Amino acid sequence: GRSNAHFPSADPGMYQLDITLQRGQNLAARDRGGTSDPYVKFKFGGKEVFRSRTIHKNLNPVWDEKASVLIDEPKGHLHVKVFDYDFGLQDDFIGSAFLDLSSLELNRQTSLTLKLKDPHYPGHDLGSILLSVLMTPKEHREATMLMRKSWKRSSKVTFSMWSSTFFLVVIFSFIFFKPNMPCRTGTLWHRINSPSDCVLMTLFCIPSNQNHEQTQSLRLSDLHRKSQLWRGIVSITLIEGRELKAMDANGLSDPYVKFRLGHQKYKSKIVPKTLNPQWREQFDFHLYEERGGIIDITVWDKDVGKRDDFIGRCQVDLSTLSKEQTHKLELPLEEGEGWLVLLVTLTASAGVTISELSVSSLEDQKEREEIMERYSLMSMFDNMKDVGFLQVKVIRAEALMAADATGKDSFNFCKSDPFCVVELNNDRLLTHTVYKNLNPEWNKIFTFNIKDIHSVLEVTVYDEDRDWNADFLGKVAIPLLSIQNGEQKAYVLKNKQLTGPTKGVIYLEMDVIFNAVKASLRTLMPKEQKYIEEENRLSKQLLLRNFIRTKRCVMALINAAYYISSVFDWDSPPRSLAAFSLFLCVVWNFELYMIPLALLLLLGWNYFLIVSGKENRQHDTVVEDMLEDEEEEDDRDDKDSEKKGFMNRLYAIQEVCVSVQNILDEVSSFGERIKNTFNWTVPFLSWLAIVALFLFTVILYFIPLRYIVLAWGINKFTKKLRSPYAIDNNELLDFLSRVPSDVQVVQYHELKPDPSHSPSKRKKNLPV
Questions:
Q1: Which residue among 74, 95, 497, 563 is buried most deeply as judged by most CB within 10 Å?
Q2: Secondary-structure class of domain 15-141 per CATH
Q3: pTM (predicted TM-score)
Q4: CATH number for the 365-523 domain, one of 2.60.40.150, 3.40.50.300, 2.60.120.620, 3.40.190.120?
C-alpha cells in the first residue's frame, strides 16, 4: 500500500499505528450489474493517510494491505471510507466507519469488524470492513527513521537539480538583488555590496548547531518587510480602446488588457469581436514607493486553442502625475496599433498599519473616539469608499504541523519556522518568523480600512524554508460580518481548500467598526477585483461538483413544478382548495406591488421559522464531500504533474472544458445565492433585502407604473451624458455577488476546536 501521511511532531509520546486492511463483507452494490469496484480510504486529522487498491466487481473483496501511520497521541478517530470506483465519473460512496484510537491497547494486535454506515440512510445495511490494528510507542530515533523512509521518494534530489538550483540563485541574485540591499544575519544587519556577495550569503549562511536560532540566512518575511505597508492607492479606470490592430481572420480581435505594477497584476474582461472595445473597469494598486512607479500595460487578443496574440503595450509613469487628482490619459500602443483611454487617480493611504500588541488603536480612548466618530451615522456621506475599520490581533498558534523533519539532535527534530499572512481583499500583511517552534507567539496588531463589509479576512500560516519555498501549514477564512468584537478566539486551521481541518489552532482577536449606511450602499456597487491568480485548470471533481450543484438547482425548480401540478390534480383536497381560493383572491385584486410584497412575506416567514427554532439547519454534507474529494484530487495532481503532461497536450479541449466548468459554477452559484438570501444565511443582507422590497412595495403602491418606467428610462438614456466614464453595473447582481454560495458557506464554516484548546475569552465594551 501507499501512504501519504502528514506526520505530526515527535513529542515524547509519539506512536506508530500499524493497520492491516484484510477484507470486506457484503458490501453494498453501486453498479448496474449488482456489483461494485470497492476501494478504501483511511483518514486521520482530516488528511488521507492511506488508500487501498481497487478490486473490481466484487462485494466481498480481499485486500491484505498494510500501512503505518505516526501520530503524536493515542486519541482521536480514524475515519474509514469505502467507495465504488467509476471510470471518468464521480466515485460512488458505499459507507464509512470510525475507529476510536483511545479504545486501543498499546502493544496488542486487535482485530476489528467495522460496520459501514451512511448518515443519509442510517437504516441501510452497507456491509462491513475487517481489519487489524496495532499501536506501539516510538522513540525519537525510530520515528526519525520511519519518517525518512516514508519521505524518501519525495526527498530525492539529483546532482543536476542542485546544479540548476545554483545557477538559478546566481541569475536571481544578478536580476533582483541591488547593491546596498540590507541582509539580516542573526541580530546584525549587513550590506550586500555586489551580487556575488548576495549569492555567497544565500548559499553559505548556514546556521551552526550552537547558535541555531540566532544565525540565519535571508528570510522570506525579511524580504517582504519593506513591502508590507504602502504609501498610497493608484486607482485606474480602463475606459476604452480605439482602432486596435486586427489579429483574427475576420478582421477583428477579442481584446483584453493586462496591468502590472511590481508584483501586483490585474486582467480585464474580454470584449469579443471589436477593434474599439468598451471596458469601463476599475482596478486599485498599492503604491509602495514615495516617488511612484511605472505601470506596464499590455493588450492581447484572446484565441481559443492556441497562444493569445500580442496587440501592443504602453506604460504609465506615476512620478509624473500629481496626487489627489484624476488624470485622463490617451496612450498610444507601442509595437502595435491603436490607443487606450484611462483614468488614473493617486490618493494617499494611512489606514493599514502593523504594531506590537501593547500598541492598540482601540485601547487608546482618544483614538477610539476618533474612529467611532469617523464611522458614525453623522458621517455617512463622507468618503463613501471608507466603509469601516478592522483591527486584527494575531496572538499565537498551538500544535502546528511539523514541516521540517531534518537534523540529528532532538532540538532540530520535527519543528517549523512559522509566520503568518493576514489578507483582506488585496491588502496583504505578514508577521515575523518564529524559528524552530510549533507553538509560536507573534503578538502583532494589524489594522485595515474596510472597503466592503462583505469581505472575508484570510489568515494563513506558512513554514519558512531556506530554499525560499514557504510550506503551507493551515488557513482560516472569516467573514467580517461574523466577527464578535473583542473576543479572543481559537480558530481551527483548515486545509488549502478550506474543506477540512489540519493540525493546529490559531488565536485571534478582532474588532470591526463600520457605518451601516455606507456598507448598504457599497453592497449595490461592483466588488473589488483581486489580483490575477492562477488560471483555472481542468478538474474532473470540480467539473462534476459544478454539474451536481447545477442539477440540484434545476431539480428544485422541477420539484416546485411537481408540487404545483399536484395542486392542480387535487392530490391533497384541503391544500388544493386553499390554493384555489388564494388564486381567485389574488388574481381578482392583483396589483403590481403584490410581487415585492410576496417576496417580503417569504423573507419574513423564513425569519420567523429561524427565530422560533422550527427550522433545523443542517450542514451541507453533499457539498462538503465534493470539496473534500476535489482537494484530494488536487493533491494527487500536484504529485503527478511532473510525470504526466497529458492535460497540457490537450490545451484546446481543456480550455473548452474549463469554460463549461466555470459556466456551471456561475449558474449554480446564482441559484444558491438567491436561496441563501431567503434562508437568512447572512442576516445583514437579508435585512437589506427586506428594506429594499418594502420601499419597492410602497413605491409601486403609491406611484403609477408609467411614472416609474418613465423615470427608469430617462435615467438609462441620460446616464452616459451625465457621466461619460461611469462604470456600468447591475445593482441586483452586485447585491447577489455578496451572498455566499453553498461552497463558500462550507468554506467559511467555523470548525469547533478541541476542548483542550479553549481560549480564555474576554469581552471589551466596544460598540459594533
A1: 95
A2: mainly beta
A3: 0.58
A4: 2.60.40.150
